[in-house]
Amino acid sequence: MSQNLRVAVIGAGRMGIDHIQRIHRRIHGAEVAAVVDIDLDRANAAIADIPGAVALTDAQAALDNPDINAVLIATPGFLHEEILHAALVKDIPILCEKPLTPDAESAWKVVQAEEKLGRKRIQVGFMRRYDAEYAQLGNIIRSGELGELLVLHHQHRNPATPPGFTNEMLINDSVVHEFDAVRFFTGEEITSVQVRMGKRTRNAPEGQHDPQHVLLETESGVLADVEIYVNAQYGYEVATQASFEEGVVSIGSDSGPYVRTQGRWGGTVTPGFEERFGAAYDVEIQAWVDAALKDEIGGPSAWDGYATAACCEAGVEAQKTGGKVTVALNPKPALYN
Ligand SMILES: NC(=O)c1ccc[n+]([C@@H]2O[C@H](COP(=O)([O-])OP(=O)(O)OC[C@H]3O[C@@H](n4cnc5c(N)ncnc54)[C@H](O)[C@@H]3O)[C@@H](O)[C@H]2O)c1
Ligand SMILES: O[C@H]1[C@H](O)[C@@H](O)[C@H](O)[C@@H](O)[C@H]1O
Predict the structure, then answer these.
(1) What is the pTM of this model?
(2) Do 123 and 176 belong to one domain?
(3) Where in this chain does the record put each Gfo/Idh/MocA-like oxidoreductase N-terminal domain (predicted)?
(4) Ligand 2 centre from 173 Cα, in Å?
């Protein structure tokens, strides 16, 4: 594929708009050819500064357009499955925002459809793998320089949740990132999930128990915990501390610049994921484009999407029971080895 990628972005909401601007302004080798949203006004607003792009309301119409040769899916997670299958039929590179799908059964169907196609076409939007500090911690773990990794502590805090953010979405939409991070760091599958509910913040909307404490273990016995706290008010913070045999590594905690003025010292907390992970999204999308132009796909795969969906399913079950729930996975198809 020598020409630019001509991308249809499906979903012009918070994340879709961010990716549209990213592709238009910062990514090399790709252009936004179409924006699809059921809300045509949103789609039109999204292409206002992109000459030549078209606004549509139907994803299939974009996929049927021979001028489109790649698709970025940024609709809510429960809508991904249908678009993924339609895009696999077109046999074009796909960047699907996380989650691949919200449950293991539908994610497995996507894996099977890709396996039937016979080659990888899907990259899942687990952008943390492209964050510089995440990549560095991954390298430290793999190098063995601090001995064996023993425990991972995660904090995942959002300032507030959008309307309709259910109790299950704390797992399916938020902790799904830590499921991927733990698998990425350890190179192992997660074998069990437990969720504990403690004291609830008065800032949580009705029906949502916030914060929650999620406990995981991996095949070799690495333990991980996640504080998921999505109405934390003060800002957006995602951090990890890793304990090894010979040391401890922290990433994502406070970084400069530290300012001293008017009798106070301090810095700022990022307000949202766009600021905290802006650079990682750029690297993620550029990597997808670079691979797609060589007719390849890299990064987190549909298998990673399926395995994390299975963790989510166990997590949602664990929310109800409070007990430890085993993660059950189908055998990994050779395509993903
Ligand atoms: N990687 C990350 O850090 C990150 C951050 C935020 C969101 N996300 C993911 O991105 C996706 C979108 O999230 P968001 O926060 O932008 O949601 P959003 O609700 O802000 O936007 C979704 C958009 O999809 C549109 N839409 C709904 N149904 C549609 C359909 N059938 N066809 C076309 N468009 C349709 C809506 O009108 C809306 O504009 C989700 O999967 C979410 O989990 C990922
Ligand atoms: O969809 C968003 C997004 O994935 C963010 O990265 C995460 O921090 C939020 O918790 C989630 O709701």
Answers:
(1) 0.96
(2) no
(3) 5-126
(4) 6
